[in-house]
Amino acid sequence: MSRRARAGLVLSCALLLSACADDDGAARRRMLGEHPGLEAALRVADPRRGGRLFGQCAACHTVGPGAGDRNGPNLFDVMNKPVASNSPRYGYTAALGALGGTWTPEAMDRWLADPGKVAPGTRMRFGGLADPLDRADVIAYLQSQSAASAR
Questions:
Q1: In 125-146, which positions are buried (b, 16+ CB within 10 angstroms) versus exposed (e)?
Q2: What CA–CA distance (Å, rounded) separates 117 from 131?
Q3: Which residues fall within 8 angstroms of residue 112, CB to CB, at 6 or more apart?
Q4: Considering the entire predicted model, what is its pTM?
């Protein structure tokens, strides 16, 4: 394994482990009740925690301006962009291309819950995030990773 690959693996593991430290999660969950909707979850979403949770995604995705693609496209500034268009260099699957639409918070929430259900035939091998608050945190993080937020 190359030095760069080892460094990436160590960073991914550290980010994943740090996502387990969720001091305010219980309080935020109590505020939401038993069956929170996306709108309520986004109101209490924590983009910093979403960034830690994104560690799971970092094995395949980058999220920096001008960063390259990996096994998945760079996700910088992906929110509110047409699906399957964020990286002109990435070869999106026909399944994702046929999905159409825009990466709204609602669309991203469905995708993060179960990508294979949303776009059968996608190459993305990710089981999804079952917890609505986890998804809201990742969405808040992705929203913070945009050209508009960098200004």
A1: ebebbebbbbbbbbbbbbbbbb
A2: 16
A3: 128, 129, 135, 138, 139
A4: 0.81
- Give dist(CA 109, CA 68) in Å, integer: 24
CA proximity to 42, closest of 54, 51, 53, 50: 50
**pLDDT (tens digit, 0 to 9) for every residue of the chain, 151 residues total?**
555 544 444 344 444 444 444 557 788 888 877 777 999 999 999 999 999 999 999 999 999 999 999 999 999 999 999 999 999 999 999 999 999 999 999 999 999 999 999 999 999 989 999 999 999 999 999 999 998 876 5
